[in-house]
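== Sequence entry ==
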Amino acid sequence: MKNASLTTIAEKMKNLDFCMMVTDDGQNGSHSRPMSNNREVEFDGTSWFFSYDNTPKVEQITNEPKVSLIYQGEDMLFIDCNGSASIIREKDMIKEKWIKGLERWFPEGPETPNICLIKVEADRVQFWHKEEEGTYTK
């Protein structure tokens, strides 16, 4: 698999919204769930997700920060992003990352009780797109 630039990865991820976030379930297994990437985000090696603080995924990330984000796009595009996650609870950062439409899940906006951010810093991103494939490593 050839090396890919962060710019190449960002371009492929630009219009992807949902991914499967895979965490260690703490019982010798993994747990997957769909998460919104909020589409139209300029990927710079870090992905951001909103969550409630009192969820199993937040507990799992706290116990084991290694995660995988698996995206599928149109036209046979697949992306696997592996990295380390952390939980961000600072209100200023939550407000900075807030986008319209998130009220669907967080009705009180950035002031929703127990809201937090999950920050995933990529160590390695692999993609497969038709005949092309590549790997970005931090």
